[in-house]
Amino acid sequence: MPRLLDWLDERQPDVVCLQETKLTDDAFRKLLGDEITGRGYELALSGEAQWNGVALLSKVGLDDVVVGIPGAPGYPHPEARAVSAVCGSVRVYSLYVPNGREPDSDHYQYKLAWLAALREMVGADPAHAVVCGDMNIAPTDADVFDPAAYVGQTHVTPPERAALASLQELGLHDVVRDRWPNERVFTYWDYRAGMFHQDLGMRIDLILAGTPVAERVRAAWVDRKARKGTGPSDHAPVIVDLDEAPDGDIGPVVPPPSAQPTRRRSVKLPQSS
């Protein structure tokens, strides 16, 4: 909670997408409601106790809120993994895509079916969509520190990447990669000692935008500073500025890693659900 509030005060974002809140809606409002609304945000939630949970915070409107994804499967029951609303002139999706756990497991098949349902929903108006969140998929080998470290794991398998590509085929632009096509960009680093400092990460937190929105992008970057310090998340926020860039056209990762990139082919990074 204090890290989130400090970050909101520092960056002053107009719209915020949160994932893995791990709180019921009532508990979220009790813990953070006054702090969030006191900073000028409206709030939309989809939460559950202990697991999952997503939220949308907006200073530019929060209309036509939709909780969940029509037709999406559950595991076995529907999980709190999606909330969307019209913020200004765009529909913003805050998503926490299922992890998949192990290739070909039941949870892996659930992940693929969930992504198919998401594609159907976004396909209703992809031009004005901004799909944000923890996608639990690295789009290409360039989005992991070493492809050999992920052999046999989720996040990088061809079916997962094909599902993500199918979503993008609706006309959605990966705005960070579009702006930084050849740069080393990660958003997630395992908690184990040295992974963050050695920049052994992966890019699984994405912002995908329809063409009219993508054309408004003035900056797109990863706020690596938010991954530092005491008690951080293992993910860093992805920031995209439309129309104007208060911090300038900086990036792709700010501040850049302090250590030189390291490749360690013996590393394995099993992902938690």
Account of the 3D structure:
With about 270 residues, the chain is of the alpha+beta class. The chain has a single domain, classed as 4-Layer Sandwich (Deoxyribonuclease I, Chain A). The chain has six helices and 14 strands. The protein has a six-stranded mixed sheet with strand order 4-5-6-7-11-8. It has a three-stranded antiparallel sheet with strand order 1-3-2, covered by helices on one side. Helix 3 links the parallel strand 6 and strand 7. Helix 3 runs parallel beside helix 4. The radius of gyration is 18 Å and the shape is globular. The two termini are about 20 Å apart. The model has no long low-confidence stretch (mean pLDDT about 95).
Key terms for this structure?
24% strand; Deoxyribonuclease I, Chain A; 14 strands; 273 residues; globular; alpha+beta; 6-stranded mixed sheet; 3-stranded antiparallel sheet; 6 helices
The total beta strand count reads 14
Please state the average pLDDT score. 94
CA radius of gyration:
18 Å
Low-confidence stretches: none
- For the termini, the CA-CA separation is 22 Å
Number of domains: 1
Taking the sheet with the most strands, its summary is:
6 strands, mixed
Strand order of the largest sheet: 4-5-6-7-11-8
Strand content: 15-25%
Predict the CATH topology. Deoxyribonuclease I, Chain A
Specify the helix fraction band. Answer: 10-25%
CATH superfamily: Endonuclease/exonuclease/phosphatase
Number of helices: 6
Counting helices, strands and paired strands, the structural category is: alpha+beta
Globally, the shape reads globular
CATH architecture: 4-Layer Sandwich
Q: Which series of helices and strands comes N to C?
A: HEHEEEEEHEHEHEEEHEEE
Return the CATH class.
Alpha Beta
